[in-house]
Amino acid sequence: MAEFTEGAPCWVDAMFTDVEGAKTFYAEVLGWTFGEAATEFGNYTQAYSDGKAVAAVAPPMPGADAPSQWCLYFASRDAEATAEKVKTAGGGVLMGPMQIGTFGSMAIAKEPSGAVFGVWQPGDHKGFEKVGEPGAYAWAEVFTREPAKADGFLAKVFPYETQQMDMGDDPEAAGMDFKVFSLGGKENAVLGRMKMGEEFPPEVPSYIQIYFSVPDCDEAVAKARKLGGTLHFGPMDSPFGRFAALTDQQGAAFAVIDLSTTVGEMPQMSDA
Q1: What gap in Å lies between CA 158 and CA 191, rounded to an integer?
Q2: Rounded to an integer, what distance in angstroms lies between the CA atom of residue 95 and that of residue 101?
């Protein structure tokens, strides 16, 4: 697969206290299979859909006390340079940049409103081998209470074009603030940004919601709940697909979307 464009989402992983439990959960919900744990890299274990790499899971690093959560990585031609841009734009670098064997270089960073993300400069590991198909990464959105901070930061760190979604006269969308970031033309949307409203408990920090594609949203939700996951929103129809927001049995947030089931007109976008 060709390397990803600078700023494009290119990989996801998560740390779980109970890695075997996570493997059982996502095998059932998303149909994943798993490779051998890389003992020299902290038992990092790749997940596959139809034999193609789509994600990875690992145990926490020794001494770490972080909650289970999915991390989205953005492609970078130079992780050191991107880390400097992160700092200049008002974000923070939490880890790295560091070389990971021959696989590539990575950094973990935080945008000014608090959402954590990764940076990946590919070596042998290019990133997703499958995108937008059942079992694979489909989309991601930055959820923040301070959209101006996140928007300004993202546009400084990566070469994004930005558009604001026009909510029109839909009363259900009143007050909604949603922006889309694109690469190489407005038709190539790669990331969304949603302003968090009062429906989010105040203790929930800014975060990046990762959507995985599934053939049937309702079936995926039923499987997740059966295995101890929690449904937070949906399933709901939209012009983009039928989707739902969940947390797994260890508290990691994610969403599922059936991209083949679309309802309604695509919203209008305006330059932002």
Answers
A1: 11
A2: 16
Give start and end residues of each alpha helix (H) in 97-158. 147-157
Burial of 156 (0-12, 13-18, 19+ CB in 10 A): middle
The encoded tokens of residue 250 equal: 């260890």
Q: Are residues 52 and 130 in contact, defined by beta-carbon separation less than 8 angstroms?
A: yes
Of 186 and 56, which is predicted with more confidence? 56
pLDDT per residue as tens digits for the range 138-172: 999 999 999 999 999 999 999 999 999 887 666 45
DSSP one-letter code for 172 = G
Question: Distance between CA atoms of 134 and 20, rounded to whole angstroms?
Answer: 22
Ramachandran region of residue 221, left (φ > 0), alpha (ψ -120 to 50) or beta? alpha
pLDDT tens for 117-145 read 999 999 999 999 999 999 999 999 999 99
Residue indicated by tokens 């996502």:
26
